[in-house]
Amino acid sequence: MLLAKVDITTKLWPKSTKIYFLAILPVHPEVKKRSEVAGHATETSLNDTETANLKILEDGPCSTSQILDKLGLESRTGAFRRNVKNLMDIGFIEYLYPENPKYPNQKYRLKQ
Q1: Model pTM score
Q2: Beta-carbon contacts of residue 79 (< 8 Å; ≥ 6 apart)
Q3: N or C: which end of the chain has fewer CB within 10 A?
């Protein structure tokens, strides 16, 4: 469930008076299923680079350098590494050769 806390201030009450309410919104079961990590549900919100990475990998497995070329980046930045690690932790992508992460021709692919 997604919880939202909204602050409402109106002109009818003094400035120090605030009214809060809690809205509980259901989350679609498919989103819950995709965002479970180690048995714990997490909120999944992807940034633009993560979304672009997923779109690139829809065409098939790609190496880091291929992904960087398609994104228009010249080198592996810390932000790029964090984005890839986040996508792997969430369970959206995986190594092509998971038994050997340091494999010289390693590629990433969408998780089956």
Answers
A1: 0.59
A2: 49
A3: C
